[in-house]
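Customer escalation, tier 2.

The customer says the design service returned an amino acid string that "doesn't look like it belongs to this structure." They asked us to rerun it and document both sides in this ticket. The original structure tokens are below, unchanged.
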């Protein structure tokens, strides 16, 4: 038997909350602390704001095709597979384009960042964007996945890339705590494009066995075959906040209806008194 097959994924229990309304900082903090695995808030921001952000993304002068092995278009910067110097330089360059997505809107990303910053400050904890001598992270990046087949974004975890980010990144400290992933959805196709979450939180040994030690991407269908999963059916204006240590992916889309657009960012405790936020 090939060594890749020898590791059987352990089933990790998940705790999920799904509801309509506005997100609150107490539930964001429960994800940050690892008490809640996933939080899906439906109709969390207005369709008017969602449509404006989508229009701005489509017309953005900063819109690019990813060239790091993950099919998709984006505005913003990703630390994935980059050293700190290139990531922060990219973030600085992309900042005007990220800001232009929000124009003069009161958008959900900056609103939540501000509310969480105030709430954590009251508890003696600082929340700030990750930074280095080369620059600082942006509040989010915008992504439109273009993988074809079963998944438009293949199953992955968000922790490997943080764990292996390197010593020059202050954010690598977060890998030992919950890496929380915020996803805001300005546009969602009629069918498909679900966020799928598997009941499995890979260890370093699991990742090594699957050949994804430094990337956490992609996990094969065979590896996940016997792991229970659940789908979040999303609509424009929804927010999904997950523990990025659990394997997750985005299901494929049928037809050529509306595009799927996500605003994504990561955050987590680097120290008991410091929460970092990056993309
Ligand atoms: O698009 C989504 O719903 C999830 C995005 C994601 O998992 C990521 O950017 O790491
Ligand atoms: Fe992810």
């Amino acid at each position: 038997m090939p060594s890749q097959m020898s590791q059987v994924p352990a089933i990790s229990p998940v705790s999920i909350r799904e509801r309509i309304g506005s997100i609150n900082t107490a539930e964001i903090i429960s994800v940050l602390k690892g008490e809640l695995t996933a939080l899906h808030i439906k109709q969390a921001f207005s369709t008017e704001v969602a449509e404006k952000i989508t229009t701005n993304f489509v017309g953005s002068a900063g819109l690019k095709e990813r060239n790091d092995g993950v099919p998709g278009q984006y505005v913003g910067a990703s630390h994935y597979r980059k050293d700190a110097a290139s990531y922060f330089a990219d973030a600085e360059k992309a900042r005007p384009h990220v800001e232009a997505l929000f124009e003069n809107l009161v958008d959900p990303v900056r609103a939540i960042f501000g509310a969480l910053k105030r709430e954590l400050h009251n508890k003696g904890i600082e929340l700030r964007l990750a930074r280095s001598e080369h620059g600082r992270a942006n509040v989010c990046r915008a992504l439109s996945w273009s993988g074809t087949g079963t998944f438009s974004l293949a199953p992955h975890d968000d922790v490997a890339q943080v764990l292996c980010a390197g010593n020059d990144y202050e954010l690598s400290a977060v890998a030992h705590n919950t890496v929380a992933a915020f996803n805001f959805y300005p546009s969602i196709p009629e069918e498909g494009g679900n966020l799928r979450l598997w009941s499995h939180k890979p260890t370093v040994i699991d990742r090594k066995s699957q050949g994804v030690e430094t990337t956490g991407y992609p996990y094969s269908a065979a590896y996940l075959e016997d792991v229970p999963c659940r789908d979040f059916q999303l609509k424009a204006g929804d927010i999904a906040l997950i523990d990025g240590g659990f394997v997750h992916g985005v299901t494929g889309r049928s037809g050529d209806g509306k595009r799927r657009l996500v605003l994504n960012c990561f955050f987590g405790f680097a120290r008991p008194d410091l929460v970092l936020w990056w993309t």
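Tier 2 assessment: The sequence is consistent with the input. Residues 84-102 form the longest helix (19 residues). The domain at 3-278 is CATH 2.60.120.620 (Jelly Rolls). Sent an explanation to the customer and offered a walkthrough call.
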